[in-house]
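Lay summary. Proteins are chains of building blocks that fold into shapes, and those shapes determine what they do. In this project we predict the shape from the chain. Here is one chain we studied, written as its sequence of building blocks.
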Amino acid sequence: MKFAGKTAVVTGAGSGIGRATAEAFAAAGANVVLGDINAEAGEAAAAEIRKAGGKAIFALLDVTKQDSINAFRDAAVKEYGHVDIVANVAGWGKIEPFIQNTPEFWQRVVDLNLMGPVMVSRAFIEPMIEKGEGRIVNVASDAGRVGSLGETVYAGAKGGAIAFTKSLAREVARYNVTCNAVCPGPTDTPLLGAVPEKHREAFVRVTPMRRLAKPSEIADAILYFASERASFVTGQVISVSGGLVMNG
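And here is the predicted shape, written in a compact code that computers can read:
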């Protein structure tokens, strides 16, 4: 897949799936704008891409704040003139029984995993419509498709992100703008690294391929949806989970 001349913005690009996605876009020739709330991690990721010969800048981004999203968009346009691809990767959750959740926890989960992609997509989509071309890829979760023990509100937010993806795809298909979703299974990221070892082992046991996903394997699916190979694919959801979820 080649992205020469294309500009891709990636949220949550300081680590994990977001960083792997930014690296993959850059390696395929895209101009990449990395956004993350962790400035140190984001700057380091962008620097590594440039060191490897890629084109990348970092811009601070809090996907829960409209002003931050607007500033991020403006930085991307100022640097590269246009944005062709939006990869909404930023997200967050933790395993905790629903009855132990606080309202503040619920709000954070919904803001990051549902409203973040909504607001970021809205910030970038109008020029895509005017140009008659664009790609939006949202990272949801298999939790949003089938539910997940101890991640009830997270699953609800990711389920909302899937429904948002499909509905937006219907709205903008006439403008040659596609919108698709990637649903990772358990993936070897810093976020999963914070999970107790017994839970990580359980994830491996229930996955038919008997391992966690690599962030780069999720990035491959994101790049597919963003590529010309998926030019007639929109409103779709793909699970990258080693067979953990096999819904028809």
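What the prediction tells us: The mean pLDDT is 93.
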